């Protein structure tokens, strides 16, 4: 659980830096899959530091997924929005209202309930059909992103957000379907699902941060990366709760995700500064 929360801190802080860098980058093709956008954003130090935090968060996420149920890790990762809100208030001088501080507290309460009620990770390893299906979902995420550029602004943001969240959800499940790292792993479709899903999710999220309503996109991402993976973990991988505390786990999951959705606006980076304005990040 400590690793899951550490991953949330890394991802939440990285999103502030990456959102600023993505908005400052030159506009691209308008497609949800614009690989050149990553190269343009990577020219800025904020984006590079954000990538480093993402890498650290991913390592912590893997450790968490190998020890506690997917639904607990997913809710903890959704809590990265609470981290983003607090970091934005501190570094970018984006004030939190009383209701938003309440949402931060709600996220923390939900995570506390999950920590008390979650059991050990399930012992299921997943069938070969599940692994192939996961790879298919990862490919579908990339396809959806490719056509999302032609949608109206609000619809595009929601589709990109859901698709990117689904890609990150594929990563969560794929980590559980890879038993070890060896030559045999190269024949495991879950490995390629992890790489494709993670890459597609990251690419689509970067596009969402630059175009359209990022608040809507962030809410879609939270839903995409929590509900589906949690269901797969319970239904196919044997994730469970402590005896008699299933109700508390369900309540904690719902409370944590609801609190994160209430903070979705903090996926929206601040407006680009006008010439002569001071840089709030001290660049």
3D architecture notes:
The structure is a single chain. The chain has 283 residues and is an all-alpha fold. The chain has one domain. It is 71% helix and 0% strand. It contains 11 helices and no strands. Helix 9 packs antiparallel against helix 10. The radius of gyration is 18 Å and the shape is globular. Keywords: Membrane, Signal, Transmembrane, Transmembrane helix. InterPro entries: EmrE-like. This is Integral membrane protein.
How do the SSEs run, as a string of H and E?
A: HHHHHHHHHHH
Query: What's the total count of β strands?
Result: 0
Cα end-to-end separation:
34 Å
- Unreliable spans: 272-277
Give a short account of the largest sheet.
Answer: none
Helix content: over 70%
Average pLDDT metric = 85
The coarse silhouette is globular
- Structural class, please? mainly alpha
- Number of spatially distinct domains: 1
Number of helices: 11
What labels describe this entry?
283 residues, mainly alpha, 11 helices, signal
Summarize it.
Helices cover 71% and strands 0% of the residues. The model is unreliable at 272-277 (pLDDT under 50). The protein has one domain (2-267).
Please write out the topology.
Layout: H1 2-24, H2 35-41, H3 45-65, H4 70-78, H5 80-91, H6 98-117, H7 128-148, H8 153-177, H9 189-210, H10 214-236, H11 246-262
Helix pairs in contact: 1-2, 1-3, 1-4, 1-5, 1-9, 4-10, 4-11, 5-6, 6-11, 7-8, 7-9, 8-9, 8-10, 9-10, 10-11
Transmembrane segments: 45-63, 70-92, 98-116, 128-151, 157-178, 190-209, 215-238, 245-266
Protein name: Integral membrane protein
Signal peptide: 1-21
């Amino acid at each position: 659980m400590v690793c899951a929360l550490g991953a949330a801190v890394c991802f939440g802080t990285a999103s502030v830096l990456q959102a600023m860098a993505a908005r400052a980058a030159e506009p691209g093709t308008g497609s949800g899959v614009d690989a050149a956008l990553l190269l343009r954003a990577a020219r800025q130090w904020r984006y590079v530091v954000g990538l480093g935090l993402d890498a650290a968060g991913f390592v912590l996420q893997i450790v968490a997924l190998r020890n506690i149920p997917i639904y607990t890790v997913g809710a903890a990762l959704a809590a990265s929005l609470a981290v983003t809100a607090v970091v934005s208030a501190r570094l970018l001088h984006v004030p939190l209202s009383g209701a938003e501080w309440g949402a931060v507290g709600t996220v923390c309460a939900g995570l506390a309930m999950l920590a008390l009620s979650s059991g050990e990770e399930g012992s299921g390893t997943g069938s070969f059909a599940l692994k192939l299906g996961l790879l298919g979902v990862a490919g579908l995420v990339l396809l959806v992103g490719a056509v999302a550029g032609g949608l109206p602004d609000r619809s595009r943001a929601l589709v990109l957000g859901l698709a990117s969240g689904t890609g990150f959800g594929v990563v969560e499940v794929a980590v559980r379907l890879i038993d070890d790292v060896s030559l045999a792993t190269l024949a495991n479709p879950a490995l390629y699902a992890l790489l494709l899903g993670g890459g597609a999710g990251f690419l689509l999220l970067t596009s969402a941060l630059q175009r359209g309503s990022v608040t809507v996109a962030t809410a879609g991402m939270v839903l995409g990366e929590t509900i589906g993976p949690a269901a797969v973990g319970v239904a196919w991988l044997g994730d469970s709760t402590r005896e008699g505390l299933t109700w508390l786990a369900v309540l904690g999951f719902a409370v944590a995700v609801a609190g994160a959705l209430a903070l979705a606006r903090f996926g929206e980076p601040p407006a680009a500064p006008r010439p002569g304005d001071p840089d709030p990040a001290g660049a």
